[in-house]
């Protein structure tokens, strides 16, 4: 009669405990675990088998411990409501819920068709449409991304890779060669004539790389010409859409890229003129005005290849070679190509590290309505560290993928700074203290938080028309951000059903808190609009 029957599917002992404390009665389903496993299919079964045995045992123990019922009272109450429809459902996946249970006034913790922004290819596609929906440029907060299964986007990626290589060559010539005049020496006149400079390019090398003969100014001249043409297109893109792409010029791109690889990754020397040095400076300055990602993209042209519908870092590869990406793309199955399942995204090379280690931010938010769009931002979040020191010379997963599910397989490197937390987790408060020690005390509230809020709202608005709206539903999401050298946040992905399994002392507390405050927000606030909602704040309501 009080409509206080709930159902929980999945490992959520905190939710079960909090609802029981509110006087709710659970309607238990028999063999929920087996039903969920059957629903997820053979592929997810394999993933479950691959999980570390101790992790699964710990999860089961935590569930059982919270579900202790010495008197059998909860089992009795559950039996009495076995034929009643639950009024509140908290589940891992909406698809795992019997749709007959979803009555109009029942509350469930998922919306339908959220893959428009919670899968990598969905977010990539939705944000491409953002400029038509909002006056916002996704390139200011989302590293540019392409779906390799779509031929038009694969061609656009090839062009982007080439243009990025040309810009990167200018940066290498300018930053690594031209600015190190103390190491520069005049070449003999017999080499290329007076006025030519030869500089050792001090940049990452592979251990097996061998320096070849120096690359003379023609290579820099080609890069300058390509970038000039691209700048012309950027400056007049609304006036003359028929301007040919600079990548369709007479340059032999295969040869250009091979020589760029030699400079960027194999230690080859560059030769350039004083005039070219000034041209590089001016051209990069003008390009920066047109390209919001010019700074963060670095100069090694690293890209990250991701399965578009996976999570927890599965299948992710970093690469610096165009041919490697295309070879991997050709190796995908026909079905995957048709749906554009795989994406390639520009790697953020110039990022903020802590104690020489890469990290990312897991930021929670809740959507309680799509019509009107209503978004609540959680003021607490946490950082996830890699196990090995950050390096652009080495692209191992232990250095570049911050996911807990990835890093748990790696031992901490002996080269790791001892100040990195052993459990590889920090709270946002610890991060704020670190920023204050660096003299950037205002960066969190003035740059990072506003940037994360704006990115989340833009992502939601770009996908709003595709989500399956349902009154009474809500959903808790986990957005992942990288932080640039300038403290600007870069959105990587948004996760539906973010993990609530604690991996550290910090996440044990924060995950419990966000579950508690979510129930306050979606249940308690209905009856008492002035009740505490913890760390949630309303950041948008249409």
From TrEMBL:
Top-rank taxon, per record? Eukaryota
Q: Where in the sequence does UniProt note compositional bias of the Acidic residues kind?
A: 57-70
Q: Which organism is it from?
A: Erpornis zantholeuca
**One GO molecular function term?**
ATP binding
Q: Which Pfam families match?
A: TTL
Residue runs in coiled coils: none
Q: Fetch the InterPro entries from UniProt.
A: TTL/TTLL_fam (IPR004344), TTLL_monoglycylase (IPR051437)
Q: What is this protein called?
A: TTLL3 monoglycylase
Which is a GO BP term held by this UniProt record?
cilium assembly
Which parts of this chain are annotated as the region Disordered? 34-71
GO cellular-component term (any): microtubule cytoskeleton
Its localization reads:
Cytoplasm, Cytoskeleton, Flagellum axoneme
Keyword line:
ATP-binding, Cell projection, Cilium, Cytoplasm, Cytoskeleton, Flagellum, Ligase, Nucleotide-binding
């Amino acid at each position: 009669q009080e409509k206080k029957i709930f159902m929980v599917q999945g490992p959520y002992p905190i939710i079960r405990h909090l609802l029981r404390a509110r006087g709710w009665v659970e309607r238990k389903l028999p063999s929920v675990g087996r039903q969920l496993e059957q629903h997820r299919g053979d592929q997810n079964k394999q993933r479950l088998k691959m999980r570390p045995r101790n992790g699964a045992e710990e999860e089961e123990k935590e569930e059982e411990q919270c579900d202790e019922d010495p008197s059998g009272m909860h089992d009795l109450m559950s039996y009495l409501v076995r034929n009643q429809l639950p009024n509140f459902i908290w589940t891992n996946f909406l698809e795992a819920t019997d749709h007959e249970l979803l009555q109009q006034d029942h509350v469930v913790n998922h919306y339908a068709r959220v893959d428009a922004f919670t899968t990598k290819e969905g977010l990539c596609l939705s944000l491409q449409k953002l400029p038509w929906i909002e006056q916002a440029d996704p390139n200011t907060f989302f590293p540019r991304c392409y779906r390799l299964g779509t031929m038009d986007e694969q061609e656009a990626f090839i062009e982007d890779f080439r243009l990025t290589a040309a810009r990167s060559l200018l940066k290498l010539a300018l930053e690594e060669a031209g600015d190190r005049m103390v190491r520069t020496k005049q070449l003999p006149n017999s080499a290329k004539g007076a006025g030519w400079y030869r500089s050792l390019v001090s940049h990452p090398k592979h251990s097996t790389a061998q320096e070849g003969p120096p690359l003379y100014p023609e290579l820099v001249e080609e890069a300058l010409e390509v970038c000039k043409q691209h700048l012309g297109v950027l400056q007049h893109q609304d006036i003359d859409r028929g301007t040919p792409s600079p990548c369709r010029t007479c340059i032999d791109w295969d040869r250009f890229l091979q020589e760029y690889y030699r400079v960027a990754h194999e230690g080859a020397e560059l030769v350039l003129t004083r005039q070219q040095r000034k041209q590089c400076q001016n051209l990069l300055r003008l390009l920066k005005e047109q390209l919001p990602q010019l700074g963060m993209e670095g100069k090694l042209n690293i890209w990250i290849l991701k399965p578009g519908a996976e999570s927890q870092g599965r299948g992710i590869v970093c690469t610096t070679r165009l041919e490697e990406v295309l070879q991997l793309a050709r190796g995908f199955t026909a079905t995957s190509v048709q749906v554009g399942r795989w994406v390639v995204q520009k790697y953020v090379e110039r990022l903020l590290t802590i104690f020489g280690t890469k990290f990312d931010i897991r930021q929670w938010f809740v959507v309680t309505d799509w019509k009107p769009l209503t978004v609540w931002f959680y003021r607490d979040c946490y950082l996830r560290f890699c196990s090995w020191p950050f390096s652009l010379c080495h692209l191992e997963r232990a250095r570049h993928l911050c996911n807990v599910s990835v890093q748990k397989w790696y031992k901490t490197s002996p080269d790791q700074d001892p100040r990195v937390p052993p459990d590889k987790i920090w709270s946002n408060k610890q991060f704020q203290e670190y920023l204050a020690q660096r003299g950037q005390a205002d960066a969190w509230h003035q740059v990072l938080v506003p940037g994360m809020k704006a990115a989340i709202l833009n992502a939601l608005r770009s996908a709003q028309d595709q989500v399956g709206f349902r009154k009474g539903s809500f959903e808790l999401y986990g957005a992942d951000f990288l932080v640039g050298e300038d403290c600007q946040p870069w959105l990587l992905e948004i996760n539906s059903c973010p993990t609530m399994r604690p991996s550290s002392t910090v996440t044990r507390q924060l995950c419990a808190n966000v579950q508690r405050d979510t129930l306050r927000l979606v249940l308690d606030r209905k009856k008492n609009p002035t009740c505490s909602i913890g760390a949630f704040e309303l950041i948008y309501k249409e």
